[in-house]
Specification:
By secondary structure, the chain is α/β, with parallel strands linked by helices. About 35% of the residues lie in helices and about 20% in strands. A six-stranded mixed sheet has the order 6-7-8-3-9-10, with helices on both faces. β7, α8 and β8 form a beta-alpha-beta unit. α5 packs parallel to α7 and α6 packs across α7. It is globular and about 65 Å long. It starts with 6 loop residues before the first strand and ends in an 8-residue tail after the last helix.
Length: about 350
């Protein structure tokens, strides 16, 4: 059964090359070259490859996390998709609209009405209070003053800052400033939400709280999100799907469970390290076909993390049934399989 939502955003064969006349580098035979030939061609021309042949789809309502170490190309890809930097080659489509073919005036309208952006730098205007900062992008849309202030109030309440409408940025904590940035980006009701390391400047406790807040907002808003981070645990916590990058190229794309259970190579395996699998894997990731022995079994939701499911096993329970949203049994968990999923040896992957 394929219940994957339709793609909101599609990126195909995206390249970003830095250096003199990068467009000249991708002219001529470049489109007909293999990926390896393209890389060799670009490097021989003394240009720098920041993104090389990047392709992925982001389904409607999904959180797609791009992660990698510094210099991996993750932020360059995000900025290329939104055309904050101009891609050198490839295609980007938003609901069928060719973003790379859009004129500057068309792009401005798309950004104003369809995109929201949040960056590590909060980017708040120091001379404006919270409600004015949140309402600012609506002013660019030329909405009436009362309409934009009412929308700003709604977003301020949504992110948990009700009562701080008239505070100025210097009066806010780091976490509060980030909430204002999130509220501002949501004010335009974006169809596509870009977030680039939005929580990396926060201390660990506030960062964890903001991640929880982000997930709470997503359950209410169901946005299509591209989220960039260098933190693997953050990626595991937030993502529907993770894209791991290295040296401008995609190394692996998969769900958190697929990345953890089937790493593509040693580079990905090093990211996994001591990941607490019981807090990553979900019941549906490790369930077996439903087991009917004529006895009643405890049940757990398919999306429940294993840590929650494990607590249902006791000295008399040998089977836990996994159920869907309607309560129908779709599989079963057994103690030995759960243990194997948590402590299995990772298979060797061919180089």
């Amino acid at each position: 059964m394929n219940d994957q939502p339709e793609a909101k955003l599609s990126v195909r064969d995206l390249w970003k090359i830095f250096g003199p006349d990068p467009k000249g580098v991708v002219s001529g035979e470049f489109p007909r070259m293999t990926h390896e030939q393209r890389l060799a061609h670009v490097r021989a021309s003394q240009h720098h490859v920041a993104a090389a042949g990047v392709s992925f789809d982001v389904p409607t309502g999904h959180i797609f996390v791009i992660m990698g170490l510094s210099g991996s190309g993750k932020s360059t890809v995000l900025r290329s998709i939104s055309r904050l930097v101009e891609p050198t080659f490839g295609s980007v489509t938003l609901e069928g609209t060719d973003l790379l073919g859009a004129s500057q005036s068309e792009l401005i309208e798309i950004r104003r009405h369809k995109m929201g952006m949040v960056f590590q730098d909060f980017g708040l205007l120091p001379h404006l209070d919270v409600i004015q900062n949140v309402a600012f992008p609506l002013k660019a849309q030329r909405r009436p003053r009362e309409e934009r202030r009412e929308r700003a109030r709604q977003m301020i309440e949504l992110v948990g800052l009700k009562g701080r409408e008239h505070a100025y940025p210097h009066e806010l904590s780091g976490g509060q400033k980030q909430r204002v940035g999130i509220a501002r980006s949501l004010a335009v009701e974006p169809e596509l939400w870009f977030l680039d390391e939005p929580f990396s400047a926060l201390d660990p406790l506030i960062r964890s709280q903001m991640q929880d807040e982000f997930l709470r907002l997503q359950t209410q808003l169901n946005k299509t999100i591209v989220f960039v981070t260098h933190d693997f645990l953050e990626a595991l916590k937030l993502a529907d799907e993770i894209c791991i990058m290295k040296d401008g190229e995609i190394v692996q794309i998969g769900t958190p469970a697929e990345i953890v259970l089937r790493p593509a190579n040693d580079y990905v395996r090093r990211f996994i390290g001591d990941v607490p699998l019981a807090n990553v894997l979900r019941a549906e990731d490790v369930m077996s076909p439903a087991w009917d022995d004529g006895k009643p079994h405890p049940t757990v939701a398919r999306q429940a993390i294993l840590d929650e499911a494990i607590k249902l096993f006791d000295e008399t329970t040998e089977t836990v049934d996994v159920v869907d949203a309607e309560g129908a049994v779709i599989g079963s968990l057994h103690p030995l399989e759960v243990i194997r999923s948590l402590y299995h040896d990772q298979p060797e992957t061919a180089a």
